[in-house]
Write a structure and sequence with these properties.
- The longest helix has 24 residues.
- Strands 1, 2, 3, 4, 5, 6, 7 and 8 form an eight-stranded mixed sheet that branches.
- The chain has one domain: Rossmann fold, CATH 3.40.50.150.
- With 266 residues, it is an alpha/beta fold.
- Helix 4 links the parallel strand 2 and strand 3.
- Helices cover 41% and strands 20% of the residues.
- It is built from ten helices and eight strands.
- The structure holds S-adenosylmethionine (SAM).
- S-adenosylmethionine binds next to helix 3.
Length: 266
């Protein structure tokens, strides 16, 4: 299914994803780290402008706006159906715009903070997208975004007997993952090489979550108990969450886990 139609179709129910414990868990790990960077700038600066690129239904913009009301947020997405869902909740601090990450309608170094969560992998040129995020970000701020981890995609493909021999771009567009738009996966090492070439400073980088993988694999590996079922038990949730944070803090893993969180800055 093409990407526009996919998100158009999903827009009305997109926010329900938060009810699935696995996705909630995964985003909570991301927020644990992302918030540290945001609060750090919030303490230091009075007027802060943030870009949320590929904002979807505005989940991250709304969360940030609630907790950090001084921040002025521009939230941009290519899909007006996702945006109209986002706009159902009024918020004076957030301005929603229809536009493309690959061609951001902003002048250079306009934003103190730039975030792009789970959006770049849906564009057909991730590196150009990163260049755009860097271009509009201020040097003294930070640029935080997620990529989809190619190592994880390979093991998922192996598991599903659906291996792409090229291992360059793995298109999980058939087999178990049906009805999904094209998604591009990145090797952490390729991102590191790219950043080095461009002189981008990687402030932080790790992959997550490790102990469990995405909703597709959970169905394959455990028909009766999905990882969301396991996480629904509060005690399990806390243990798995704490383990995950410990692993990330200690090892900064890059090659396992579904997402790679990258922070560029000075
Ligand atoms: C998986 S959703 C993530 C939404 C939101 N960031 C979140 O974490 O809930 C991906 C979003 O990226 C948007 N998107 C894809 N390609 C884009 C592009 N080139 N420019 C702007 N947005 C794009 C899609 O329309 C979709 O809303």
């Amino acid at each position: 299914m093409n990407q526009f139609d996919y998100f158009k179709k999903r827009s009305k129910k997109y926010d329900l994803i938060n009810q699935k414990k696995f996705w909630y868990f995964s985003d909570e790990i991301l927020w644990y780290y992302l918030e540290k960077y945001i609060s750090d700038i919030y303490l230091k600066k009075n007027e802060i402008i943030l870009l949320d690129a590929g904002c979807g239904t505005g989940k991250w913009s709304k969360l940030i706006s609630e907790k950090y009301p001084r921040i002025k947020i521009y939230a941009i997405d290519i899909n007006e159906y996702m945006l109209s869902k986002a706009k159902e909740v009024n918020n004076d601090n957030i301005e929603y715009l229809n536009g493309d990450i690959l061609k951001l309608p902003f002048i250079d170094h306009f934003f103190d903070i730039v975030i792009s969560i789970h959006a770049l992998p849906f564009t057909n040129d991730i590196m150009k997208g990163i260049d755009e995020l860097v271009r509009v970000g201020k040097n003294e701020g930070f640029i935080g975004f997620t990529l989809f981890n190619a190592y994880d995609a390979i093991s998922l493909n192996n598991l599903t007997d659906n291996v792409n021999k090229n291992n360059e771009i793995i298109l999980l567009n058939k087999g178990y993952i049906i009805d999904k738009p094209l998604q591009y996966f990145t090797f952490s090492s390729d991102f590191e090489k790219f950043s080095q070439k461009k002189n981008y400073y990687i402030k932080d980088m790790f992959s997550y979550p490790s102990s469990c993988t995405n909703g597709v694999r959970e169905k394959i590996t455990s028909k009766n108990h999905s990882i969301s079922d396991i996480l629904a038990v509060e005690e399990n949730y806390q243990t798995i969450f704490t383990n995950e944070i410990d692993i990330i803090n200690k090892y900064k893993p890059k090659d396992r886990g579904m997402y790679i969180f990258c922070v560029l800055g000075k």
